[in-house]
């Protein structure tokens, strides 16, 4: 059976501020209480019936003593109060640095959805899978935050009152329908922590739990690009809404995977683990596979042809020549600059075994010759 | 400057034991209607005692189910829906139908008139009506629980309660609404009685502290309850008519409900605890044979809590989206309300100093109260301080805190009251051994139940969670183990007290050698309490001199259990 | 304590009539305190929403029937006067005039309720009732307006006309939901007040009966006084409801 450590993990600046006050109050109040208990115990023993002969003295009170134990607690309490105000103030969003990163979180029965600004990356922080759509269920992950970087989180609820609490951050905030509320965190420790819904919200209240995962700044940047699966390790997926995720949609829309598969029958080079490798070219040179190279290989595939892949009759590449244009369109072989970057990022992050499968029953691309009217599914980023 | 008041003179020999009259309030009339239509404050007190015992049992069983379910991190016996209904039933039953009426309705009804030398409460018919209203409210609540339950928690926060819950919110709220009027009636009755019906010589400064405590309680009942009543009306209208008063999707504001709700429900915790403090002042002085240390401080701290208690409600909402400045203000005011409780604890402790202390069951319960209430009080500080509340809010830390105050404080004071006044109410003594054993078992069980909850609370385990992370399990198992001991502790009195009714030795008029007017009349009292209008000559706790409030010499105080044990071991053992 | 020294109206648990009466008066005053807090919760809700949504509240208020409220105010104030005369008559032991004043008070109170009921009925006819009725009227009016018809006259239609061409969030747009919030408070406040009037009428009727049966001797006039305290409070509450509900929007559009 798992047990708890003595101290709850501290993973944010507000946790660092919370802990000293908590323990100071604990020691002062416990000390006073124990002193009172000892007094009670001592009096009970020393003045039990018969221990002292004769009637009890008629003591009615003492203004001095009473004043003492009125004023002293009051002063101590006011000290706690002032310290508490300092912590509360620091935890309020008005104390957050102006250049903080921003995340929006929506609570609803019974899940937490988060969206990063300004990139629009989306993740389901947690919740009851039974209450989710298929798409949402696939996106269950964690709220990924960079370490040592302040983040302002804006909350709203779609239905009832929830509460977004992260014990390791010593933070809690009610999430209210019809009103935006904000708080901020500055995580200080890499790791994975509980997110609880702390305001009773109905049947699956206790399943409205999730994770917050604090990662290094580098990992976080990679995550935002969709180059890692930090939101749900082991799934290999890019976070929804990230450049790599969008690139994957384009990759699918443009049917790149009909040639760029991950097996030997491919009609084009395998792109997995390509990024960072040295690529031998037909002209005998070797170039590093960086973003420039990938970009160039899309818009100008004949410029650098990978050794063994000059399979066109003229010895060039069979890759269509995509031009940067106002739309992304397979029939016209155009791609928008933004999509070009996204596809590049997708390829950059492609690891072993992650190429989307060559799938013959994929719908023909939108506007492809011969099938102009059929709308594409899943191609809308 | 120490407080000196004129010493009453020690007077003549102990007056003879009053003849136990053949006719008392229990046997002057028989039959069900003589009880159901009685306007005798003592019989109404007994009616309340019986009904509260039933509701306490219902609430206790619900608590047992909750604790059993928490044995496993994924819920041991109940589904989530059942669990939610169960903790709501526990909260509604215990708060609205046990804790709020408990001491005022049972001991307040029974003893306030006697303690101030009156024949009855000012409005006996109103008093009876209050019991019927209470039972009607309880009927609604029990109907709501039996016909599928309520799953909103006792706090009934909209918009969940007004729109999203599919359970019997309206009957449940109706039950609380109706029983609120019973509370108002009782409070009004006690307040008017204390103001207008004190016997000659019973000045405010000579009133037992129990009366002061109930006076402060009545003040809160009168001012607070109407507000929650109207709030519940608005909630019921919103739920039934679908009009948005609190639901933001149709124009309202859910935070307004919380303000109105806590405007009553925070003072309501003082409705629950202040009477307990009154009982403690009575029992502690009697069993330590001392004057209370600082009568005025203890009396006025009750009133102070009653008044300041109305100004702190928003401390339930520090993380609920209230404004920054109101949070600062309400936290500060909460610091002020903490002080009177601290004063009381210190004064009670000082009362023990140089006493002549015996440890019969009422005293054991009272000592347990002192310990548990102290822990409950100081842990409240963590929740009143803004910086710590941010983390501890809505966790098991809160659960443990208010159970320490409500159960450790209030219920143990209630038990102390039952054991202290049982001989007067029934005319019988109960088993000395078993009553002491029960006090010890309850104390131990209580500690084991709720101390682990502080730990998981600090670690962030939220309230109202049937499913929780596995690392919390060991503490929940400890807590459930404690709860079963606690349950045993509550079960014991129901047995030996019931047995005492039939086999217990007859109680004398003043078995504890106490000073209050209630001990100057026979046990059990006659219908109109006093044959002659009593004339009070001194303050309530003249144990050192050994005179009661009528100025008569007190009988020798009983040795600890000595005279009774023999008779009772025959009976119970 | 022989019973012969006691008045028949003295209850057994009081020492003397003075104690009994002062207890009754204090009890009633305390009950009135609870009443004030009961309505206080409503006034609190009203205040919060009025501050947040002043324009909707003015609009909604202006559609209530002012003349009935004015008349009702006059009726209630007069009834308080006759109630006071009734106390005087009771103090003097004038049974006949006591009964007369009580009956007049009763009739004035009943007239208040009658007019109030008429007002509710008229509001209902105009579909000025929160919830589905108002919403449907509003939606119908919107539908008529978009199709160029002239909607049936009602407050909901006026609101729809006012809002025509505006979107939620535009300056001058009045949210129908918030108008209904006012209506909801209006019905709850006047409804609960009406229930209080009804209870008061019951008490007055009981007093008439008691007086007729000679059960209100001079020394027991405080029974009348206690009921009058309640009646005055109900009157007072109306004096707060009237400006808050009716006068808030009375000047709207009449500059």
The number of helical runs of chain C is 8
- H and E string of chain C: HHHHHHHH
Measured as a percent range, the helix fraction of chain C is over 70%
Biggest beta sheet summary of chain C: none
Please, how many helices of chain B? Answer: 17
* Biggest pleated sheet of chain B: none
**Interface with most residues:** A-B, 90 and 108 residues
Gyration radius of chain B, in Å: 23 Å
DSSP E strands of chain B, number: 0
Distance between the termini of chain B: 53 Å
**Assembly classification:** heterotrimer
Mean pLDDT of chain B: 92
Q: Describe it for me?
A:
The complex is a heterotrimer of chains A (381), B (573) and C (255). Chain A has 381 residues and is an alpha+beta fold. Chain A is built from seven helices and 14 strands. The C terminus of chain A is likely disordered. Chain B is an all-alpha fold and 573 residues long. In chain B, 64% of the residues lie in helices and 0% in strands. Chain B is built from 17 helices and no strands. In chain B, helix 9 packs antiparallel against helix 12, helix 11 packs antiparallel against helix 12 and helix 15 packs antiparallel against helix 16. The termini of chain B are far apart. The relative contact order of chain C is 0.17. By secondary structure, chain C is mainly alpha-helical. Chains in contact: A-B, B-C. Chains A and B meet through helix 1, helix 2, strand 7 and strand 9 of A and helix 3, helix 6, helix 9, helix 10 and helix 11 of B.
